[in-house]
Amino acid sequence: MFPVLSYGITPAFTAYPGTVSLRVDTYLALLDDLLGGLYAQGFRRVLVVNGYGGNAPGQGWLGEWLSGHPDARVQWHNWWNAPHAWAAVQAIDPLASHASWMENFPWTRLEKVPAPQERKPLVDLARLRQLPPQRVREVLGDGNYGGLHVRPDEDMRRIWQEAVAETRELLERGWAS
C-alpha cells in the first residue's frame, strides 16, 4: 500500500481557492515514473485505486504502458463507479454526483461546518464541460453537480464497505494470467 497521490487533473475547478491541477502530461509522466519505479523493483502486479473522474486519461494511457511491459498486470480501479459500489450508491439515492453526498463521508467532513440541506438539481454536464473555470464556479457555486450534500452516516458506511470489499476482491482474484 502506497501513499495517496493527492493531486490529479482538475483544471475545471481551478477557480476554487486551493485547487491545484496537474497538466495531463505531468500526470501521465508521474504515473509512468511511479509504475516504472515499481516495475524496476520487481513489482509485476499493481492495483491503482482512483478516486477522481478527472484522472481518466491515466486509465487510457495504462494500455500504452502495459504494451511495453508485457509481464506486468496493472488494474485501474475507479472505486466510486465500480459495479458494486455504484449499485450501493444507486440503491441509496440515484441522484449522486461530484461533491454531493456520495463524496461526503463522516471522516472527510469539516467539523462545525453545516452542510446545505437542499437537494440540488443535476447540472447540465455537457454545458458545464464547455466552460472555463471561473464560469464553472459561477454555475456550480459549491461544486455539487446535483443531489443532496449529506446523507446519514449509515448510508455512507454501506457504500464504503461495498467499495472496500470490491477493491479487496480485485486484489485477491482480479488478476489476468
Automatic annotation (TrEMBL):
Swiss-Prot/TrEMBL cofactor(s): Zn(2+)
EC number, as in UniProt: 3.5.2.10
Pfam families: Creatininase
UniProt keyword list: Hydrolase, Metal-binding, Zinc
Catalytic EC class: hydrolase
SUPFAM superfamilies hit by this protein: Creatininase (SSF102215)
UniProt GO molecular function: creatininase activity
Family of this protein: Belongs to the creatininase superfamily.
Protein name: Creatinine amidohydrolase
Organism: Deinococcus metallilatus
